[in-house]
Design goal:
Shape: globular
Number of helices: 12
CATH topology of the largest domain: TIM Barrel
Distance between the termini: 29 Å
CATH architecture of the largest domain: Alpha-Beta Barrel
CATH superfamily of the largest domain: Enolase-like C-terminal domain
Largest sheet: 7 strands, parallel
Helix content: 40-55%
Strand order of the largest sheet: 12-11-10-9-8-7-13
Strand content: 15-25%
Order of helices and strands: EEEEEEHHHHEHEHEHEHEHEHHEH
Length: 356
């Protein structure tokens, strides 16, 4: 099964937005061409559209595999990496040699300092496409390639947000009626008191048996995160996600050690080498690799590393498209898979695609 063509397609859909999660609106922002960024926070660049990058790999015998690189912004940059740097390594090689191909591509840019970021995102999409190809060639679902079926069902939690606490609680109640049993609240308010009020409003609305998590998108320092975590513990919150900036794992370790509440993190960590440092320093409790940033091969290595230290996996999806969702579902073949992120409202186009 020899690879003859590799193409990458940046996708931009008018419907849906990674940034407008569940009701957050563009306020106090600077527009940067197609994107916008908050004036008030050290936070990510967002887009008003749904963006991602799809990769197509074709073999000489006519087989085609599809993959996705998580590219909520900057998809054209990843396209150039795939087609200029990765394609020459892949052409003429056997698609079954996916482990060799990952290491060959990764090592080609290691000395140049590209051991994470857009370059590894490109490898992730290629790796997913190679799994798709191999599964088709063998007549097997991808989860069989990863070790086989580990569970019959996976648990989903829904990500929601709103600038009004009553509206947020009402939104949570509506999703409970749809069958969701866990929620992650995306909130970025400057005061811990306001965050606690919003989480408390949702807890009062949905009751004690619904799981609640809080993602504050790196908006606290160490003391602020610890103070917030202590307030969340009284509300029986499952985890606090991305409490502080990711550059120093020791900060996260200090927060994790101070709280009984679990710390979840890792959507920005792409390789097992990065994850090893976080495990060594006990910087988290729940691992959140994004499969469209790690790929399935590296994702499985990360899962095995975490499993050896009794760390559960709850994959991040964020603004990923339907191929990212599908790959993450197959990733549930790992033993320490816990739950999967889902976005019910912000990107309805994914639900429409998945139903066809």
């Amino acid at each position: 099964m020899i690879i003859k063509q590799v193409d990458a397609f940046p996708i931009r859909m008018e419907e849906g937005s990674h940034g407008n999660v569940g009701g957050e609106v563009q306020q106090n922002v600077d527009t940067l061409g197609d994107y916008y960024i908050s004036r008030d926070e050290w936070t990510a660049i967002y887009t008003s559209r749904h963006e991602t990058l799809v990769i197509r790999i074709e073999t000489t015998d006519g087989m085609v595999g599809w993959g996705e690189s998580q590219a909520p912004v900057g998809g054209r940059a990843v396209k150039e990496i795939v087609e200029q740097l990765c394609r020459p390594v892949l052409i003429g090689r056997n698609a079954f040699d996916r482990e060799y191909l990952w290491y060959r591509m990764y090592s080609s840019m290691r000395e140049r300092g590209h051991i994470t970021g857009f370059f590894v995102d490109a490898l992730a999409g290629i790796d997913i496409a190679l799994h798709d190809l191999i599964g088709k060639a063998l007549g097997l679902p991808v989860y069989r390639l990863l070790g086989g079926k580990m569970r019959d069902e996976i648990e989903l939690y829904i990500g929601i947000s709103n600038l009004d606490s009553a509206a947020l609680a009402e939104m949570a109640a509506e999703h409970v009626a749809l069958g969701y049993r866990a929620f992650k609240l995306h909130l970025r308010f400057p005061s811990n008191r306001q965050l606690i009020e919003y989480v408390s409003a949702v807890r009062d609305e949905v009751g004690p048996d619904i799981g609640l998590m809080l993602d504050i998108h790196t908006t606290r320092d160490v003391s602020g995160a610890i103070g917030l975590g202590r307030g969340l513990e009284a509300l029986d919150v499952m985890w606090l996600e991305a409490p502080i900036a990711p550059e120093d794992v020791r900060w996260h370790a200090e927060v994790a050690a101070a709280l009984d509440l679990r710390i979840a993190t890792g959507e920005w960590l792409r390789t097992s080498w990065e994850w090893r440092q976080w495990i060594d320093l006990q910087g988290f409790d729940v691992a959140m690799p994004d499969i469209a940033r790690t790929g399935l091969s590296e994702g499985k290595r990360i899962a095995a590393l975490c499993d050896a230290y009794n760390k559960p996996i709850s994959p991040h999806i964020g603004g990923g498209g339907i191929l990212s969702v599908a790959a993450s579902i197959h990733y549930s073949a790992i033993p320490n898979f816990q739950t999967l992120e889902h976005a019910h409202r912000p990107l309805p186009i994914k639900a429409r695609i998945a139903s066809k």
